[in-house]
Design brief:
With 433 residues, this protein is α+β, with helices and mostly antiparallel strands. Helix content is 39%, strand content 20%. It is built from 12 helices and 18 strands.
């Protein structure tokens, strides 16, 4: 969430920053109006308080019990009531502004390019070569069914559209990818592994910005006789991991905190009707390895680069061709101030597809989750908000898709990347069962 006081003091700059996203969000004009009302309430309240102080001083100079003193006391009482009324109005206005700000996205960083959609994103670099084939490459849907490792029909029978069953080498490849990604980040990048619940309270989703704006996109489990609270299936490990230290004050010397977590993820995909209905690209349930950083503000830009590099190394170790995109202002997520997307090449679609979004949120999420730290070496220092960063490293299902499509052979078999063979019992090729 944006800083209330920063918005009040820099209304025009904040409006301009939000406008870079394509449109100033609904409700911002109401915030502007409320800021003016708040200013009036403060001025009028201070005026009454000064008058009250003057009236109170004058009371003592009047004859005790005189009509003049009684009249002055009544006037002072009225001024006090008015002052308290303006204070109450100020608090009411501030609460309304805070409520509206919960629906307002983050302001893009200065170095984020302006643009309205993915077509305005800026390509920064590519890694590896596109695989060349002397046959027409097939997409992962056809390859998976041909090999008997992806079963879309039974997934639909069990749970409906956008669910899939993985058989045999497909299930083993999914598990191999999870373990490979975890080991890489633990052993080579210094992350600490954490295993969290897959269901969270409403407050956790508010903390990372999914609620209230994106409630249609998450699966909700209603309250019951045993539990008064609603629970929500997590759309990403970002939610529980970022909120681990909510309402805490961390020691500055402990930063950065770098966490890696495996979770299944659950998304209703409410706004994606008709998109990517074929295959594994857009599922209601999928696996992901998530990286989360808690950084001091002055270190978050460097942390963003390191987090992105860690995610890139997964693709490099797997030998998968990809590119890195800097998202434009109009294509970033709600809470991000800057985002790099890693897009892997899918020969079966003849297109690059996003496989990881690595974002710096600044203090946007930390303010919502009350996630603070005390600067190192100063026990009397006022706690500050951390900066939060996260990124997929990687979305496991989409990585499986990329392996099937980039490593496919003319006979429909799939060469297993060397980095995964130790996790696959030495298996070098997936063939039709």
């Amino acid at each position: 969430m944006l800083d209330f006081r920063d918005v009040v003091e820099r209304l025009d700059e904040v409006r301009a920053g939000l406008g870079r996203r394509g449109a100033v969000p609904e409700g911002f004009d109401r915030i502007v109006s409320l800021v003016a009302e708040r200013r009036t309430a403060i001025i009028e309240g201070e005026s009454r308080k000064r008058a009250l102080n003057e009236a109170s001083a004058a009371i003592g100079k009047l004859p005790k019990g005189s009509a003049e003193q009684l009249e002055a006391r009544e006037k002072a009482r009225a001024l006090g009531d008015e002052a308290r009324g303006f204070d109450a109005r100020q608090k009411q206005i501030e609460a309304e502004i805070e409520g509206l700000l919960a629906h307002v996205p983050n302001v893009p960083a200065a170095d984020v390019p302006d643009g309205a959609s993915e077509h305005d994103n800026r390509e920064l670099r590519r890694w590896g070569q596109r695989p060349a084939f002397d046959f027409a490459p097939r997409d992962h849907h056809d390859l998976g069914e041909h090999l008997g490792i992806l079963d879309f029909e039974r997934g639909s029978k069990l749970s409906g559209a956008r669910f899939t069953v993985l058989w045999g080498a497909g299930a083993r490849l999914e598990r191999a990818l999870i373990n490979f990604m975890l080991d890489l980040h633990l052993n080579e990048h210094g992350y600490k592994e954490v295993y969290t619940p897959f269901m969270v309270k409403r407050a956790a989703l508010f903390g990372t910005g999914q609620l209230p704006k994106f409630e249609p996109d998450v699966f909700r489990i209603g309250a019951s006789e045993e539990r008064e609270d609603d629970l929500f299936m997590i759309p990403t490990a970002e939610v529980p991991v970022t909120n681990l230290h909510g309402d805490e004050i961390l020691e500055g010397a402990s930063l950065p905190r770098k966490y890696v977590a495996y979770t299944p993820c659950f998304r209703a995909e409410a706004g994606s009707h008709g998109r990517d209905t074929r295959g594994l690209i857009r599922q209601h349930q999928f696996d992901k390895i998530e990286l989360v950083h808690l950084e001091a503000p002055e270190a978050s830009e460097g942390g963003h680069e390191r987090l992105t590099a860690a995610a890139e190394q997964v693709l490099q170790r797997l030998g998968l061709h990809y590119r890195v995109m800097l998202l434009c202002s109009g294509d970033m997520g709600f809470g991000a101030k800057k985002t790099y997307d890693l897009e892997v090449w899918l020969p079966g679609q003849n297109a690059y597809r996003e496989i990881s979004s690595c974002s710096n949120y600044g203090d946007f999420q930390a303010r919502r989750a009350n996630l603070r730290y005390r600067p190192a070496g100063d026990v009397k220092a006022k706690p500050r908000l951390v900066h939060t960063l996260n990124g997929s490293a990687l979305a496991v299902g989409r990585t499986l898709v990329a392996i099937l499509e980039q490593y496919q052979q003319a006979d429909g078999s799939i060469v297993v990347p060397e980095a995964l063979r130790p996790y696959m019992g030495g298996l070098e090729k997936i063939t039709r069962a």
